[in-house]
Write a structure and sequence with these properties.
Distance between the termini: 37 Å
Number of strands: 10
Helix content: under 10%
Strand content: over 45%
Number of helices: 0
Strand order of the largest sheet: 2-10-9-4-5-6
Length: 112
């Protein structure tokens, strides 16, 4: 089982990034996948989640209207499109099925 996050970086406030979560070692299409984030000194929080067939999505209040989650089951990948980024979005972003070990994550830094 492996979930590898990528796509993070340094972006100015108001900017955009698209994160990717590439999966291997399990039946990807059979699982809901979620994005989490952890800012320095704070607990990890849920950001967004997507069901197996994309018919159901969830967004945390702080990212509603700015983040969009999607998945490509043919590519075993989940995406998180982030727009109108704010400094408070700065965190390490992780993807997870729920209950998996945490990977390395991808750092998102929003700063001018």
């Amino acid at each position: 089982l492996q979930l590898v996050e990528s796509g993070g970086g340094l972006v100015q406030p108001g900017g955009s990034l698209r994160l990717s979560c590439s999966a291997s070692g399990f039946s990807f299409a059979a699982y809901n996948i979620a994005w989490f984030r952890q800012a320095p000194g704070k607990e990890r929080e849920g950001v967004s989640c997507i069901s197996t067939s994309e018919d159901s999505t969830y967004y945390g209040d702080s990212v509603k209207g700015r983040f969009t989650i999607s998945r490509d089951n043919d590519k075993n990948t989940v995406y998180l499109q982030m727009v109108s980024l704010k400094p408070e979005d700065t965190a390490v972003y992780y993807c997870n099925r729920g209950g998996d070990s945490w990977g390395q994550g991808t750092q998102v830094t929003v700063s001018s």
